[in-house]
Write a structure and sequence with these properties.
alpha/beta; Rossmann fold; five-stranded parallel sheet; 5 strands
């Protein structure tokens, strides 16, 4: 097994220009649902940088009881046991509208099928974390386009 040791310090060091241009999520509660720890770790750093309050679930089932606390959901599509489409069904049963952004490694040819599922946006991996924050900002503003 290969181990890499990185220097201690903040994992993200953005220039002042990037900090000034970052999306402003204004305290939005963003539920991140992903079974990959590295993805969760990155988003747990970037979302607060953009002003969000992240909530984390490592599976769709774990996310369900947290849906009432979320302003927006960002979910991986392919996860063990239940996928992002299953989670989307639970989100759509809420008494209020909660946007859902799917992040997937599926091919672009499958994107129309994903759009039909009813996600507010479908993003193909790899996704730049700041671009994801900009997408979250736009869906919270009501700009829906899968």
């Amino acid at each position: 097994m290969l181990r890499v040791r990185l220097p201690a310090g903040p994992p993200f060091c953005y220039s002042p220009a990037v900090a000034e241009a970052r999306p402003n999520l204004r305290g939005a509660r963003v539920l991140i649902v992903d079974d990959h720890h590295d993805t969760l770790a990155i988003l747990m750093e970037v979302l607060p940088f953009c002003g969000a309050s992240p909530l984390v679930a490592q599976s769709a089932r774990e996310a369900v009881p947290m849906l009432d606390s979320a302003d927006v959901v960002v979910t991986d599509l392919a996860m063990p046991e239940h996928d992002g489409v299953w989670l989307l069904g639970h989100v759509r049963q809420l008494p209020r509208r909660v946007p859902v952004v799917a992040v997937t490694g599926y091919t672009a040819a499958q994107q129309p099928v994903l759009a039909d599922a009813g996600f507010d946006r479908v993003l193909l991996k790899p996704v730049d974390p700041l671009d994801l924050c900009a997408v979250i900002e736009s869906v919270l503003a009501g700009e829906n386009r899968a």
